[in-house]
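Standup notes
- DV: blocked on the single-chain target, sequence here:
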Amino acid sequence: MGARDNKRILILGGTGEARRLAVMLLEAGYSVVTSLAGVTSDPMLPKGEIRTGDFGGVEGLVEFITAEKIVGIVDATHPFAEQITRQGFEAAKQTKISYVRMERRPWKPLAKERWRLVADVDAAVKALRKDARVFVTIGRKALPKFAERDDLSVMARSIEAPEMEEPENWRFILGRPPFSIEDEVELMRQNKIDTLVTNNAGGKAVAAKLQAARELGIEVIMIERPIIDGIRKVRSVDQVLRFLPGA
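- DV (later): unblocked, structure below
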């Protein structure tokens, strides 16, 4: 089925779910444009049209929606991409178009997993024991906060190199998920990690680190997701389609 101009959808993307969603919406006859933040220099690109970069806040997003004749927004950004989620929700309200957020299920602790739940990065830094050997997997932007603790030994993994000098007793490693459980176990064992710090991103692509931590008896400091009231959330593409015009 060909795309129709009166079924033009904006996907706020950057995740595997967003890439799968673009394919399925195109197959359903929608015209799709996916917006990427531009944080990663070599992103995995979805099908359909692509735009990159910041909209310029809610006002800029409203202008884009109007100019491009967008009839619905599907927010499939990372669960911690709070700013663009708030902006997308507000812009949809102002322009009176459909908005739905497709968000993967959060992780929940299993038997023998040692979790401490914290509200944000600052709380995670404070929660770390003195002289902890920490594996940090929350992206590169928040890493400077951990550098405020000079008693820590930190191994930090991100898709791209952090924009900071590597402190003493730190190790930067680059990697793009998915990762195997075996590799995660070996990585943590070789580096004598005793604490894992991660966002509750959910999904299978980066869940191996949690199983590795469980097998090694490593404590997990889990940063909980930001709470944004009033947003409609769904877990599957089929559910997304119910809330889009012309479905």
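- Follow-up: The first helix runs from residue 16 to 27.
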